Amino acid sequence: MIRVFEPRLSIKDQIAMVSNLRKNEISGTSNTINKFEENLADYFDRKYAIAVSNGTVALELAVKQLDLEKGDEVIVPSFTIISCLSAVVRSEATPIFCDVDLDSWNMTLENIKKVKTERTKAVIMVHTYGLPSPAKEIEKYCNENEIILIEDAAEAHGQTEYGRKCGSFGKISTLSFYANKHVTTGEGGAVLTDSDSDYKKLKKMINLDFGTPNRFNHDNFYWNYRLSGLQASLGISNLRNIDKTIELKQTQGNYYSTKFSSLQDHIQIPKKEYNLSENHYWVYGIVLKKQNLRNELIDYLFDSGIETREFFWPLHLQNALLKGADSKVTLKNSEYLGSRGLYIPIGKHIKRKDQDYIFNKIKNFLT
């Protein structure tokens, strides 16, 4: 089976982790955590980074620390991971869904303007599948309208928008270090900010709000969301090699695009660039132009030894949100992508011959 993704740890990664073990730097308060956070802040052009246990936690903290009230609205693109929705729901604010662009698969400023109201307090801007959202103009609009911008850069490690690092936009940014990300700690994530007060608050929020001077007298019922030092050592090593990881993904993605260009009567392939940003191909997605064919193709490829993943299912159609009720929202592009899109294997675990095999199988199915 050619997996849609398989992690591949280099010898340097393994040495970094063994070295960390020999130093006993394994806890969530070790010096390795501090070093990882410093490296992240430096790389993503932020003043502070707070390492946490996963990317979902990072989003939840980013929303929670805003102290939103019931009735406050947070705009979220419907075509994204459910973590963005759950962070808003758990804060007791109201999620407001906007559609996405059919070419870049990301939210746009026009999408945001269509659903903004006087109750809009925040926007969660997500960079999806390898291309950035128009972050510069969304940030400018949010600043002008006193809307808090949260940037989810989980899928955009190393990406830029008009030359500026993804992860450096808005009041606060979040990262995921799951095994399929350009920088991985196996599980893990981070919150990025330039605010001294946000940094201090977030540090307390992830560490049970231990008191001062009485450590075990707590002012708040906060959480233990710490990342381990062992995981951080892997993240440090991965961050050193991020350029090589992206270079490989782009080589593979561009090769796929060259092959699949002959099938554009049947499928939509990813844009190679957007707003002066080259696609990083965090995943390589295709969208079928014929309706009701996606799941059949997924099954056909699986039977051929090729694992795939369907695209995100729209947030406004999530069972957990609807609870048996019909959605009152229609977002055509998100629904189109969610029902017709899938992504195929890409990464260090596959060779050029695997890409040829995958292409030929898809070509045979479609033609």
Write up this protein:
- The protein has 367 residues and is an alpha/beta fold.
- It has helices spanning 11-22, 31-43, 55-64, 82-90, 109-115, 135-144, 196-205, 229-240, 242-260, 294-303, 319-322, 332-340, 352-366, and strands at 48-52, 73-77, 94-98, 120-126, 148-152, 160-161, 164-165, 172-176, 189-193, 267-268, 273-274, 277-278, 284-288, 309-310, 341-344.
Summarize the structure.
The chain is of the alpha/beta class. The protein has 13 helices and 15 strands.
How is this fold's topology laid out?
Blueprint: H1 11-22, H2 31-43, E1 48-52, H3 55-64, E2 73-77, H4 82-90, E3 94-98, H5 109-115, E4 120-126, H6 135-144, E5 148-152, E6 160-161, E7 164-165, E8 172-176, E9 189-193, H7 196-205, H8 229-240, H9 242-260, E10 267-268, E11 273-274, E12 277-278, E13 284-288, H10 294-303, E14 309-310, H11 319-322, H12 332-340, E15 341-344, H13 352-366
Key terms:
367 residues, 13 helices, Aspartate Aminotransferase, domain 1, alpha/beta, globular, 38% helix
Structural class from helices and strands?
alpha/beta
Radius of gyration: 21 Å
Q: Which superfamily, in CATH terms, is the homologous superfamily of the largest domain?
A: Type I PLP-dependent aspartate aminotransferase-like (Major domain)
CATH architectural group of the largest domain: 3-Layer(aba) Sandwich
Kindly estimate the percentage of residues that lie in beta strands according to DSSP. 15-25%
**Topology, number of strands:** 15
Overall mean confidence score, pLDDT: 96
| Percent helix range | 25-40%
Q: Quick one: biggest sheet?
A: 7 strands, mixed
Tell me the name of the CATH class of the largest domain.
Answer: Alpha Beta
Shape, per Cα inertia axes:
globular
